[in-house]
Amino acid sequence: xxxxxxFQFTLPYPDLIPSHYDHHIQRRLSALKGQFFDQESYAAMxxxxxxxxxxxxxxxxPHLPGELLSGISILHPGKVGREFFMTKGHFHAxxxxxxxxxxxxxxxxxxxxNPQGETxxxxxxxxxxxxxxxxxxxxxxxxxxxxxLVTFFAYPGNAGHDYGTIEKQGFxxxxxxxxxxxxxxxxxxxxx
Length: 192
Hints:
Blueprint: E1 23-28, H1 39-48, E2 52-59, E3 68-75, E4 79-80, E5 83-84, E6 99-105, E7 108-113, E8 119-124, E9 129-132, E10 137-142, E11 149-156, H2 164-169, E12 173-178, E13 181-186
Antiparallel strand pairs: 1-2, 2-3, 3-11, 4-5, 6-9, 6-11, 7-8, 7-10, 12-13
């Protein structure tokens, strides 16, 4: 929505798809090549179907300081091997940029790390607000068994996205199905 005037939109329940959006992005399994730990399960799953992992409904603004981009992320439930479905994850191109997430539906985690290798994995559930500080890469993970993880996000218009760094190195932490439930483990392939 490219207007200099105030505007509004609604997030009608139960789907929570914005009543107005400018971009609908769909990310499939093939877009996360090399990101899942169990590459054998990934290849077998991809050979069967290029599964839709998540969707983003973005309310666009000019990519300028002072503007806020916002939208809805809908991450579907599922696993590759023992690892739960996740978003690609990114730093912002303007590294010193923060982002806010508000969880509307489902359960999961936000996996985060900064360039110095510090990590944080924070739970997401309805009503929880998460602040991602400047210079922290972040990725959503859906641990709901049958329900989408739906979050509202907002970040500065000039922030941009750096997906390439994460595509090369991955994240230091993984969220997996363990013998006694959900586990957060070190990524054995993580290379800093």
